[in-house]
Write a structure and sequence with these properties.
This protein has about 325 residues and is an alpha+beta fold. It is about 35% helix and about 25% strand. Helix 3 runs antiparallel to helix 4. The radius of gyration is 47 Å and the shape is elongated.
Length: about 325
């Protein structure tokens, strides 16, 4: 009886230990699962926010604004280049070969229409002026001879044939005089003006008022009629030429507003309008040139600058 009771006691104790371990294992498993769920919830919540220290927040220099609902205007961004208005610019060159003896202006100077800019000396102009002086003298002689012949005819001292010969000589002299004047005019020289110093001198005058944007003439250089020695432009208004590809030409039309930015002034926007869309495409790039008129009263924009044009209000 004692032996049976002891066996039962040992069996019960063993069973109690096993049950205790099972209960303990189940509790730890549930606790581990709860910790995992809490960690997952924490990870999920950290995905939509970033926590910064006060020092890091100050270093970012963040600014805040109230969100607004606005209608976005479709736009087209294209490369462009600034240029002077062709009708408001001029390339200056001599009409006759000669040597530069004086340059009156330099790059950046303002000039007025008719103002002297370069003075040349030309052998051809010197000969033309000498011929003009000689033809003037012959014309005056022929004119007096014709007048005298007409007076003698009235006094019946000479014949009609003599009068006709005198008047013919006068007509030849008048033609020679006109030819000499025309020859000087083709050289860009006024036949009625004689320059100071030398009859071979040629004064090149500015055909427009504007700014000297380029100079290639120096004292002592020999220049030819094919040379450009000075360029003048009016800079109060400029053209911007933008290249629009073939597939986008249909989106651009005259009168659309354009916002222009140049590398020289980061963040500064210049405003203009589309003035013209080319009727043909450039064969190599398959693009059309869009011309934009820009007002430039402060002369900040310069011909030759590259720019980015944003054409707004496209359809």
């Amino acid at each position: 009886m004692k032996r049976i009771s002891g066996s039962i006691t040992r069996i019960g104790l063993h069973t109690l230990v096993v049950l205790t371990l099972l209960v303990s294992g189940c509790g730890q498993g549930e606790l581990h699962e709860e910790e995992q769920e809490a960690g997952a919830a924490q990870d999920d919540s950290s995905l939509d926010r970033v926590e910064l220290s006060p020092g890091a927040l100050a270093a970012l220099n963040l600014t805040y604004a109230i969100a607004e609902v606005r209608e976005l205007s479709p736009s087209l961004e294209v490369p462009a280049e600034l240029m002077a208005v062709p009708d408001s610019s001029a390339a200056i060159g001599p009409r006759v070969a000669g040597r530069v003896v004086s340059v009156r202006v330099n790059t950046g100077d303002e000039v007025v229409r008719g103002g002297p800019i370069v003075i040349l000396e030309s052998e051809a102009v010197g000969r033309a002026r000498a011929d003009l002086i000689a033809t003037k003298a012959r014309f005056e002689v022929a004119s007096r001879a014709a007048e005298r012949a007409r007076g003698l005819l009235e006094d019946r001292i000479t014949s009609q044939r003599a009068v006709e010969e005198a008047e013919g000589g006068l007509q030849v002299a008048a033609a020679d005089l006109q030819a000499a004047r025309t020859r000087l005019a083709t050289f860009g020289v006024s036949p009625d003006e004689m320059p100071e110093g030398s009859p071979a001198r040629v004064v090149l005058a500015s055909p427009i008022s504007g700014t000297i944007v380029a100079r290639s003439a120096n004292v002592g250089e020999w220049v030819e009629p094919s040379d450009t020695i000075m360029e003048i432009a009016q800079l109060d208004e400029l053209w911007l030429e933008a290249a629009v590809y073939e597939r986008e030409v249909q989106l651009v039309e005259r009168g659309q507003p354009v916002r222009v930015e140049v590398r020289a002034y980061p963040g500064v926007v210049f405003s203009g309008t589309v003035d013209n869309v080319a009727a043909t495409l450039e064969e190599r790039t398959r693009s059309a040139t869009v011309r934009v008129v820009l007002q430039n009263p402060e002369r900040r924009l310069k011909p030759g600058m590259f720019a980015t044009a944003r054409i707004e209000g496209i359809h």
